[in-house]
Amino acid sequence: MGHLIDRRWMGAALALADRGTGRTAPNPNVGCVLVRDGRVVGRGWTQPGGRPHAEAMALAEAGDNARGATAYVTLEPCAHLSPRGPACTDLLIDAGIARIVAAMGDPDPRTNGQGFDRARAAGIAVTVGVCEAEARAMIAGFLTRRAKGRPFVTLKLATSLDGRIARPDGTSRWITGPQARAHTHLERSRHEAILVGRGTLVADAPRLDVRLPGLEAHSPRRILLSRTPDKDWDTIPSPAAISDLAGVDRLMVEGGAQTASAFLAGDLVDRLLLYRAPILIGEGRAALGEIGLASLTDAHGRWRLRDSRMLGSDRLEVYERA
């Protein structure tokens, strides 16, 4: 029963962490719920730009009610001092927290187990590993940046049933319907940056902003893939240069076909958003070009379906690296 209760409260902490998705780099988006006598006394999530941390926000809300409470956190509380704020482990100790339940440890070498060790040394009971898989998915951008030195990349494709993204003359507005386009805007709001190639810029002059009521302020930074600098855009010369994008842990790539193919060929895509409209175009522009496959065998086993749903008359399929 205790494990089920822990999972329930960790689920609430994960929901809070999701509020910061795509807005907290270079820090991870973390959620924290403080529970005392079966009642929530404090809630927090990492704020835009990375501060305050989730634990600090929850403790500020709880005040004296934090003493004797259990802290449910989606990531090990930080153990290092920073010019931007105190270590969350110390804040939890000073507040009199009785127990810490964490989904996972923090791979940052400045913490990496030290937060748990310090809490245990102060007499706080520590449980680790509750909803760990869900927590890892929540901070995929943070983990990818540390493991691979680059952002977590989502590639978005909107196609007809026969895999076309435009008519032969380049006409592409609109292949998908309003619900699918609204979902794309929601996805944009969950990324620090969005990227297109020079061909898409010339053909479509895309705004790449978020046009959903209440989320307009969360439009991502615009990146252009081009060897020719552009005065109105942040420009990178190659897909590999995404490693140099400071403050970007989640990057959305919206095309076109040449850009999408280049990212796939470079093995730089972690997640696919495939929107398919119930139309046939026939002769037209393909969604992808050459992506570097040596054989059909190499094409299998690379992607795992994570979600599938209808958006109006269009189908969305979400795939992640296998």
TrEMBL record:
Sites where the protein binds NADP(+): 158, 174, 200, 204, 256-262
InterPro entries membership: CMP_dCMP_dom (IPR002125), Cytidine_deaminase-like (IPR016193), DHFR-like_dom_sf (IPR024072), Eubact_RibD (IPR004794), RibDG_C (IPR002734), Riboflavin_Biosynth_HTPR (IPR050765)
EC number: 1.1.1.193, 3.5.4.26
Keywords from the named record: Hydrolase, Metal-binding, Multifunctional enzyme, NADP, Oxidoreductase, Riboflavin biosynthesis, Zinc
Active-site annotation: 55
Keyword Oxidoreductase: yes
Gene3D superfamilies: Cytidine Deaminase, domain 2, Dihydrofolate Reductase, subunit A
PROSITE patterns attached to this UniProt entry: CYT_DCMP_DEAMINASES_2 (PS51747)
CDD domains (alphabetical): Riboflavin_deaminase-reductase
Cofactor info, note text: Binds 1 zinc ion.
Keyword Repeat: no
One family name in Pfam for this protein: dCMP_cyt_deam_1
Residue stretches making up the CMP/dCMP-type deaminase domain: 4-119
Function recorded in the entry: Converts 2,5-diamino-6-(ribosylamino)-4(3h)-pyrimidinone 5'-phosphate into 5-amino-6-(ribosylamino)-2,4(1h,3h)-pyrimidinedione 5'-phosphate.
Membership in a protein family: In the N-terminal section; belongs to the cytidine and deoxycytidylate deaminase family.
Protein name, entry field: Riboflavin biosynthesis protein RibD
Species annotation: Sphingomonas pseudosanguinis
